[in-house]
Amino acid sequence: MNITMLDYAKTILEKVSFDVKLFKKEFDKAVKVLMPEEVNELICWIKNHFEGQPVLKVLEAY
Predict the structure, then answer these.
(1) What is residue 51's three-state secondary structure?
(2) What percent of the chain clears pLDDT 70, i.e. is strictly above it?
(3) In 3D, which of 48, 43, 49, 41 has the Cα closest to residue 61?
(4) Does residue 34 register a pLDDT over 80?
(5) pLDDT at 12 > cutoff 70
(6) SS in 3 state form for 1-43?
(7) What is residue 17's predicted lDDT score, i.e. its pLDDT?
(8) The pLDDT value given to residue 62
């Protein structure tokens, strides 16, 4: 099975969503390796997937 870096980032972020610090660390790593349009897609996914959760604080800088 072929997995894209975007899908990999989503998987990791889902697994660490219990900890805001860890989520931010993994999000920052993902931003470094993804293309700009993939980063935008990831941000939209996070907003939809984690609506109302503390991890959304990570996106305040974006």
Answers:
(1) coil
(2) 98
(3) 43
(4) yes
(5) yes
(6) CCCCHHHHHHHHHHHCCCCHHHHHHHHHHHHHHCCHHHHHHHH
(7) 97
(8) 78
At 61, the pLDDT band (50, 70, 90 cuts) reads confident
Cα separations in angstroms, 28 against 1, 2, 9, 12? 26, 23, 10, 12
Element (H, E) at 48: helix 36-49
Token pair for 5: 């870096």
CA gap 28, 25 in Å, rounded: 5
The identity of residue 17, as a single letter, is S
Q: Which residue's entry shows tokens 């349009």?
A: 37
Q: If we measure between CA atoms, which residue out of 61, 47, 52 comes closest to residue 13?
A: 47
CA distance 17 to 37: 22
